[in-house]
Design a protein that fits this description.
about 120 residues; alpha+beta; Aminopeptidase; five-stranded mixed β-sheet; 2 helices; about 20% helix; about 30% strand
């Protein structure tokens, strides 16, 4: 069975990423498969790393297969650009990290899980 998976480049930040600082650093994508939109993706180069931000909007076995396929494209693109690592980043509102995140990213081979907390002060 063929699976059609597309990363479609967006000109502007999609809603989940509209608060990102320095939006010009990012490339924005819609991740779609034959069932429609399953995630929003933001990529940014950071030295020898490629940042990967993903906001899933659909879950399930098909979405996971599609994410795996898209991740292969992202890895190849990062290598093409001379990057050594992909760094998966997740923003979580509130004061507690999502306990499911480490398991989720582990399904795709990510390791060395850490917590980064941020705060903003409007000027």
């Amino acid at each position: 069975m063929w699976s059609i998976v597309l990363l479609i480049k967006n000109r502007k930040a999609p809603q989940p990423f509209q608060g990102f600082p320095s939006p010009e650093r990012y490339e924005w994508f819609r991740a779609e498969d034959e069932e429609g939109l399953f995630a929003w993706v933001a990529l940014a180069e950071s030295g020898e790393d490629m940042e990967l931000h993903l906001e899933a909007v659909r879950w399930g076995p098909q979405a996971r297969r599609s994410m795996t396929s898209d991740l292969e494209w992202v890895k190849a693109e990062a290598r093409r650009r001379g990057k050594r690592r992909l760094i998966g980043l997740k923003a979580e509102a509130g004061q507690h990290p999502d306990p499911r995140w480490a398991k989720f990213v582990g399904l795709f081979g990510f390791g060395n899980i850490g917590v980064v907390q941020t705060a903003t002060l409007e000027l």
